[in-house]
Amino acid sequence: MKTPEIRSTTVLAVKHNGTIAIGADGQATLGNTVAKSNVRKIRKLQDGKVITGFAGSTADAFTLLERIEEKLNSYGGNMKRAAIELAKDWRTDRYLRRLEAMLIVANKEELLMVSGTGDVIEPDNNIAAIGSGSMFAQSAALALINHAPQLSAEEIVKESLSIAADICIYTNHNIILETL
Hints:
Elements: E1 6-7, E2 10-16, E3 19-24, E4 28-30, E5 33-36, E6 42-45, E7 50-56, H1 58-74, H2 79-92, E8 101-106, E9 111-114, E10 120-121, E11 127-131, H3 134-147, H4 153-167, E12 176-179
């Protein structure tokens, strides 16, 4: 019998009006059951100068968070360089290659998505989304930015994640937010 897949989450980051906000829901599911409803998927690194969010296997994500922090320290806090070096290692290292997670990494200037396929993506529209409900949250954020530009980045992330939680069964309303 196959072990049920742990699925979770929706993580959304928005860069808007000089602010970056990143948020995530708190749900982790095991098969078709909610395993935990208050998982914290947002972490601050580099004394609060970098915020990360993760989706996928929690143990794998924590391994990647440790690695990105090491890379940030190695490259003097240069986030883009650290992300590129992590993506290279992730793609080529035998152990890391098996990790199943994705990261969003943000500082005051940049917003990046990092994957195990070697991708480091700087989104065109200043919206980064990962996880099961990512397309719902990203669509809502894009609509809010285009039609309610007076909202703050934090308000856009919160409302977008709430919309995703109403639609995606792997996303809940226990939202954690951080801003830079």
